[in-house]
Amino acid sequence: MNNTNYNETVRDHFLHPRNQGKIENPDGIGKVGNPRCGDVMQVAIKIENNRIKDIKFQTFGCAAAISSSSMLTEIAKGKTLEEAQNITNQNVSDALGGLPVIKMHCSNLAADALAKAIDNYKSK
User: Are 114 and 84 in contact (CB under 8 A)?
Assistant: First the structure.
């Protein structure tokens, strides 16, 4: 990772990702990928009383992809499904303090993975 391209928040979430791993028997799973850069993200959620009780991610990708996944879980945890569905790609990027323009597609994946996990939950 070239530290000059990323701010301290991005570096921190890359080096110390929050909520990384698997959830046993998740209520919803969302998986997305970007064939152009090779990043792949999977988000798993556990729902209780219409709220995201637990959320974990597994990401194969660059520092921005891992940081975006980590930040997404921090933003979404504890939110209602409706609140979580309103999390945008820009919210993730803003919470990270911004990403280099060439890496913005990475934050787009995080919000998309959460939306797919919620859709997966609702379809059951």
Answer: yes
Q: pLDDT digits over 8-40, tens only?
A: 999 999 999 999 999 999 999 999 998 777 889
**Which domains does the chain possess?**
3-122 (3.90.1010.10)
Burial state string for 20-38 with b = 16 or more CB within 10 A and e = fewer than 16? eeebeebbbbbbbbbeebe
The catalytically annotated residue of 52, 99, 106, 113 is 106
- Residue 106 is among the residues annotated as catalytic for this protein: yes
Active-site residue, selected from the candidate residues 1, 29, 37, 115: 37
Residue 37 is among the residues annotated as catalytic for this protein: yes
| C-alpha R_g of the chain | 13
Question: How many whole angstroms separate alpha carbon 14 and alpha carbon 45?
Answer: 21
Tokens for 66, please give them: 């891992």
